Amino acid sequence: MNKRNKIIITLLFFLTFVLIIGIYFFPDEEPMVVDRGNAISEKILPQQSHKSGADAGLKKESSPPISPAASAGTSAPAKAKASDSNPYVSYPETLIDLLGIDMDKLLAESETFKNTTIHVEWMDRIHDILKNLDPEKRAAIVKNHTALLYIKDKLNEAYLTGKIDHETFKKAIADLMKWHQKTYESILSRAEYEALFEIAPEQVDDTIDALIDQTPEYSFILNQDIPVEAVKEQVQGYKLEEVNTHFKKMVLDRDDIGKQINSGAMTLEQARAALNQSQQAFIAKCKEILTENEINTIFGSVTALETGSTQTEPPAVLGDSDETTLGFKIENPETSIEAVTEKIDKTKLEDIRFFYQERTAERDKLIEKLDAGEITPEAVENSSREMDAAFDDNCRSTLTDAEYQLIFGNSD
Questions:
Q1: What is the DSSP letter of 90?
Q2: pLDDT, tens digit only, all 412 positions of the chain
Q3: Residue whose C-alpha is closest to residue 100's, from 162, 174, 180, 163
Q4: 233 with 224: CB under 8 angstroms?
C-alpha cells in the first residue's frame, strides 16, 4: 500500500468497520472503551474481498432493507446542504434524507463527538500541519468532522438493524467519505490539502472507491484457507444471511456497550459481562444454524468460532485494532497483538493502557481549550511533546527493554 492511501485510511478507515471488522473479544479479555466513531475491534481482517450480489435475492425475517437503487442515489458524491453561519460548513443532504436525520438533532448531538479519540487525533494532525489556518476554517473542519462522525453512527445503526442493505451501506459510506473530502477542497488551498492528505484531491474518489470495493459482505468469515466464493458455494446462502444477522446484532450490542461505558452508565465489570453474554449468544446461534462441517468451512474450526481467532499465523496490526483491543497503539510494525498479549504480563499491559488513556484525556482537554481560543496551537504542540515524553518515561520504567522494543520498536 502506498503512502497516500495510508493517509486516507488514517482518516477514513473507521468508516468501513462493519464491513471489514474482525469477530469479537476472547472470552477472558478486558473490554475496551469503544468510542462512537469506532464501534468495534478489528480482531481479524479477512484477506479475501467479497463480490457483492451473490445473495441479493435473499430475504431476512426482519423488515426488508432499503435497496441501493431506491435510496443510495447516483455514484456522484451526495449533494451538500450549506450552513448559514459558516460558509465552509456543509451537510450531505442525500444521506440526511436517506437516514431521516433531524437537522436540529444533528447540530446538537454532533457536538458530543468532539471528545472521541478519532476526532481528537484528527484535529492533532490539523494543528500540526496547518499551523496558520484561519480560525473560521478551523471551526468549519471541527463542525464538518463531527457531523461526519454523527452521520456514520446513524449509518451503522441503520445497517446493523437491517434498515438498509449491504450495497446501500457501502454506497452511503462512499458518498459520506467523498462529501467530507470535498469540504476540505472548499476550505484549503491545494498545497494545504496535499500537505494534509499527501494525495491530490482529484485522486481521492478513486482511492475511496477502491477501499469500499475491497470490503467484504460477510465479515465473520475467519477461514483464510478457503476463498470466500468457495465458502459461499459450500454453505447455503440463507444460512450465511442468518449468521450475518446475528453477527450484526453482536456488533450493535458492542456499539451500545461502548457508548454506555463512555457515558458512565456502565462499569467495565458490567461491560465485560454484557460483552461475554452477547458473544456467547452469537456462538450458540452459529452452532444452532450450522453443521460442524459448515462451522469448519466458515471459521476454520469450532475452536476458532469459540475464540474469535484463526489457528494460523497471527495477523499484523491493522487499522485501529491494537488500540481497540489493548487500549493503546502498537508502534512496532513487526509486532502482532497476539505477540504482545502472549509475551507481556497482563498487569503491565493494564499500566500501559492507563498511561496511554491518561495522555489521551489530557490531549482532549488541550483541544477543548484550543477550540475555545484559550491557548495557541504552539502551546498545544509544546504540551503534547511534554506528554509524549512523560508517556515514554512511564512505559520504559514499566517494561523491560525487550518488552518496550516489542511494543514500540526502536523509538527513542
A1: E
A2: 344 444 444 444 444 443 333 333 333 333 333 333 333 223 222 223 333 332 222 223 333 343 333 333 333 333 445 444 788 888 899 999 999 999 999 999 998 888 887 888 889 999 999 988 999 999 999 999 999 999 999 999 999 999 999 899 999 999 999 999 999 999 999 999 999 988 899 999 998 888 888 777 888 888 878 888 999 999 999 999 999 999 999 988 988 888 888 778 888 888 888 988 999 999 999 999 999 999 999 998 998 888 775 443 333 444 446 677 788 888 888 888 888 988 998 889 988 988 898 888 888 888 888 877 888 888 888 888 888 888 998 899 999 988 999 999 875 4
A3: 163
A4: no
Strand partners, 66: 164
Give me the residue label for grid cell 505477540. 339
pTM above 0.85, yes or no: no
How far apart CA 365 and CA 382 sit, in angstroms, is 14
Residue 262 grid cell: 463512555
Q: Is-contact 222 309, C-beta < 8 A?
A: yes
Burial 298-319 (b: 16+ CB within 10 A, else e): bbbeeebbbbbbbeeebbebbb
Mention every residue, 6+ apart, whose C-beta is less than 8 A from residue 169.
Answer: 18, 19, 155, 158, 159
Name which of 38, 8, 54 is nearest 255 in CA terms.
38
Contacts of 129 (CB under 8 A, 6+ apart): 192, 195, 196
Secondary structure element (H or E) that encloses residue 170, with its range: helix 166-187
